[in-house]
Amino acid sequence: AMALCLKQVFNKDKTFRPRKKFEPGTQRFELYKKAQASLKSGLDLKAVVQLPPGESINDWIAVHVVDFFNRINLIYGTMSEYCTERSCPIMSGGLKYEYRWQDDSKYKKPTKLSAPQYMCMLMDWIEMLINNEDIFPTRIGVPFPKQFQQVCTKILTRLFRVFVHVYIHHFDSIINMGAEAHVNTCYKHFYYFIREFSLIDHRELEPLVGMPPGWGT
């Protein structure tokens, strides 16, 4: 089943996952367009992540969580042929950091998985959450649940581990593919966003202090 899952996931003609879209006409779509426009304008990324005046913080976080999910998916999708059961039998970030998988269904205890298995579980889990109307409501006037920011912290913490793994284990592949600038920009944007809203425990950030190379965090 794992091999089948990976075959579907890593079909080169598609992005790593079906992209989650925002419905045109909704406030969140407008926010998404606003965020994309400021990104494209080449503004300082530290400024880009700040909450626009008058906007709801939960809407702003929701838009970014979905967008980062889509973009990190794409990044991992392009690397996935270099990240195999053989090359990466453990989901790790160098020798010091190992990430185990845990969820509420199949893996109730933290479980060692290979990096590709971990990525597969992670992307399925995030997709399930962001498509759950009780957690990421899309209808106007439907409030976010009380635990919304906690859920986002968990999603973003786990997405950060994708950067950790890709930078530490597959950086040569990123360079060979000419994707270095793209990955670095996405990482910086993500990093400034989580710092702006204190969405990840700072200890989680330790594996990438000083990454990308030449960029001081």
TrEMBL record:
<feature type="binding site">
    <location>
        <position position="88"/>
    </location>
    <ligand>
        <name>Zn(2+)</name>
    </ligand>
</feature>
<protein>
    <submittedName>
        <fullName>MOB3C kinase</fullName>
    </submittedName>
</protein>
<dbReference type="GO" id="GO:0016301">
    <property type="term" value="F:kinase activity"/>
</dbReference>
<keyword id="KW-0862">Zinc</keyword>
<dbReference type="Pfam" id="PF03637">
    <property type="entry name" value="Mob1_phocein"/>
</dbReference>
<dbReference type="InterPro" id="IPR036703">
    <property type="entry name" value="MOB_kinase_act_sf"/>
</dbReference>
<feature type="binding site">
    <location>
        <position position="83"/>
    </location>
    <ligand>
        <name>Zn(2+)</name>
    </ligand>
</feature>
<feature type="binding site">
    <location>
        <position position="170"/>
    </location>
    <ligand>
        <name>Zn(2+)</name>
    </ligand>
</feature>
<keyword id="KW-0808">Transferase</keyword>
<keyword id="KW-0418">Kinase</keyword>
<feature type="binding site">
    <location>
        <position position="165"/>
    </location>
    <ligand>
        <name>Zn(2+)</name>
    </ligand>
</feature>
<dbReference type="InterPro" id="IPR005301">
    <property type="entry name" value="MOB_kinase_act_fam"/>
</dbReference>
<keyword id="KW-0479">Metal-binding</keyword>
